[in-house]
């Protein structure tokens, strides 16, 4: 363990300062969740357009070789950095140190299409991605007026927050499509942007 970041149980006393520096404490596919695909991002017009460009969930759930919770490298289909304009609809702080961020399409255009993006908990300070992911956590908290949600349920933002977002693709084998998110805001895919590597307000 990196002793420069004190042990922290996010389920008991997740203050803002603690959340910003929280280590990633997940076990499943930990490697991809705290590493970044190199290169320039593929630009997408919306999260709906992004999802339409991805392999179908059936193909990923029957992937060869199989993707499991122990698959600690990205599959070929995950080897993409993406950029997309989106709106933040809901956020939840998880006990692995990640923020689940339910993003979606323009709220003025119905129906709204949802997708999951994750602000990853931090790797060890010695990791190549540490500074980049730490900067994202700070930017994300600032975007939420320095009042990020605690570890209870999803906080829904009304109106949703318009952002520009970049990150690496990731397929979540832990949750089937439609399992993540608050009621009526569940993405129809288990694809994610994880980790988010840039987030800023839309101009």
Describe the structure.
It is a single chain. This protein is α/β, with parallel strands linked by helices. It has a single domain, classed as Nucleic acid-binding proteins (OB fold (Dihydrolipoamide Acetyltransferase, E2P), Beta Barrel). Helix content is 17%, strand content 27%. It contains five helices and six strands; from the N terminus they run ααβααβββαββ. It has helices at 16-20, 30-33, 47-52, 57-61, 130-143, and strands at residues 42-43, 81-93, 99-104, 114-119, 155-171, 191-201. It has a five-stranded mixed barrel with strand order 2-3-4-6-5. Residues 1-13 have low confidence and may be disordered.
Which features would summarize this protein structure in a list?
alpha/beta; 5 helices; five-stranded mixed beta barrel; 203 residues; 17% helix; OB fold (Dihydrolipoamide Acetyltransferase, E2P)
């Amino acid at each position: 363990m990196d002793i420069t970041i004190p042990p922290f149980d996010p389920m008991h006393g997740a203050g803002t300062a603690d959340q910003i520096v929280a280590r990633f404490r997940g076990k499943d596919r930990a490697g991809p969740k705290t590493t970044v695909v190199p290169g320039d991002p593929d630009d997408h017009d919306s999260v709906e357009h992004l999802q339409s460009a991805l392999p179908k969930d059936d193909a990923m759930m029957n992937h060869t070789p199989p993707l499991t919770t122990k698959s600690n490298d990205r599959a070929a289909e995950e080897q993409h950095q993406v950029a997309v304009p989106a709106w933040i609809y809901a956020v939840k702080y998880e006990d692995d140190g990640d923020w689940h961020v339910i993003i979606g399409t323009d709220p003025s255009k119905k129906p709204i299409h949802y997708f999951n993006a994750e602000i990853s908990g931090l790797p060890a300070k010695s990791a190549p991605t540490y500074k980049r992911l730490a900067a994202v956590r700070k930017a994300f908290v600032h975007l939420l007026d320095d009042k990020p949600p605690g570890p209870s349920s999803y906080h829904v933002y009304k109106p949703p927050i318009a952002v520009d977002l970049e990150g690496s693709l990731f397929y979540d084998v832990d949750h089937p499509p439609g399992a993540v998110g608050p009621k009526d805001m569940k993405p129809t895919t288990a694809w994610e942007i994880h980790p988010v590597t840039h987030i800023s307000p839309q101009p």
